[in-house]
Amino acid sequence: MRKVFKKVFYLYYDGFRNMTFGRTLWIIILVKLFIMFAILKLFFFPDVLKSKFASDEERGNYVIEQLTKPKINNND
Amino acid sequence: MIENLDMSLVDWSRAQFALTALYHWLFVPLTLGLSFIIAIMESIYVRTGDEFWKKTTKFWMNIFGINFAIGVATGIILEFEFGTNWSNYSWFVGDIFGAPLAIEGIMAFFLESTFIAVMFFGWNKVSKKFHLLSTWLVAVGSNLSAIWILVANAWMQNPVGMKFNPDTARNEMVNFWEVLLSPTAVNKFLHTVSQGYVLAALVVIGISSWYLIKNRNVMFAKKSIIVAAAFGLVASVNMIGSGDNSARDVARTQPMKFAAMEALYEGRENAPLVAAGVLSGKEQAEYRKKDFIFKIEIPSALSYMVHLSPDGFIPGIMDLIDGNEKRGILSFSEKANRGAVAIETLRELKEAKGKDEQRYIELKQKFDDPDWEENYFQYFGYGYYKGMNPISIIPSVSLTFYSFHLMVGLGFMFIIFLAVILFFSVDNKLQDKKWLLKLGIIMVPLAYVATEAGWIVAEVGRQPWVIQDMLPTVAAVSQINVSSVQITFWLFALLFTALLIAELKIMFKQIKLGPKDGGK
Prior knowledge:
Chain A is an all-alpha fold. Chain A is 74% helix and 0% strand. Chain A has two domains: 1-45; 46-76, no CATH class. The longest helix of chain B is centred in the first third of the chain and has 42 residues, at 7-48. The radius of gyration of chain B is 25 Å and the shape is globular. Chain B starts with 6 loop residues before the first helix and ends with a helix. The chains are: A mainly alpha, B mainly alpha. At the A-B interface, helix 1, helix 2, helix 3 and helix 4 of A face helix 2, helix 3, helix 4, helix 5 and helix 13 of B.
């Protein structure tokens, strides 16, 4: 079992170590994930219902209220 | 009943979603198709033991890796938008979306992430056969991931297998298999992945054509073209079949979209198929009608395509607005009235809950009554348009019509091109046909235009619905500040453009290096 783990570890270790342009790709992936999760998600994309209400019941009631008070601007 | 909502919030939210979805889709189809082309090439290597095929596989694997790395996780942004910009919708769809997306996440993680490492790092470290198995599993895994998101999208186009819970305002899945195997989902999956295969084939051919024009890596390019063209040609047969089925399904489940795809205003029997046409720029006030400046029609072909009979009736936009008693089509105003009753029933039920138990039970029973569901709840979304101008439920006919015809026209052109290039490749006369090689390069951007046009047909054509007939965009949107949507729109535009430039830059560099020097 230990041998298998060692083999798996070296597969990844050697793989990452011997990368050429893959390094650039990994940098892009990490920067992208950072922008997406640490900036966009955190500051710009809160879960509206989760942040506004504590329970599913409250969320459900709010959505029913929203759905039963249609808001359409008839600009035609 | 109607209050004013800042339409710019809806428009900006839609624009933002469209932007992220269209950018995300630039990365996905190549992953879907190229993974199989690589697996086929590696299979040839394992079977023949010829190092040439190993080198060829490795090069295309690098192109796959670049596209995968840049594109990976771009779809997550769409999920962010569901929670922030489309919270009513997110809640309303309930577990219908949750289950397929959760399965997608798990599958993508285990199948793709695990075996992708073996695929890239495992050369000479694992046996040839295990490496080949990993490559095939990456291909199968990435395509299986696509199933789940396409099933979720298909449900929005044709909601089946669920029951609306009026207490929670959520749809609950009652039949997983009905959701998974609805004709809409099956056709959507087959059509989407097969066009991804055709796109990937065209990308391989385009890059290989460039090598042949430059007289570089000649054998590599020729063999790559044969594999890609054969693969693309087989996929294109499936693309036509599933596209045909898909159109028939749209005619049945989304007749307004179908009418917009053909710019058909007046329904008729022996309806002709518009092979090509130009719509007038002038829009009539009624039905937003646009006449054709010119068109080439195939007599009765549209009726035949849908009903497998030339006499079949195809409803036009006017029939869907005014109703057609003879054909059993309800008018827009009747649907709006029935939908308003369903909305009002939901509102009353919420008010009665905990206050008037008898009334509550009485109203709740309506939601459990299949007849009421069929005659009223089915038109829930139309209730938002009661008393409004019916043109509100007509999608952009020009955009849907042109996108559809562009997609179909390019699709048929790709098939002819793939057949011709395969013919000359097998005949070993390809290098003399510079025009064909140049055409091969031109086909690459056209493949992307076609695939994006397909999504425009699917998504713009179903407007104003987020969930067909049940939830319009105006009711699905979150009540948030429009300026925050505008800011994130531009942030995304910036981020995705940067990613696209990065992808193209790295890819062009690898292509210039060629198969000999393609690193890891």
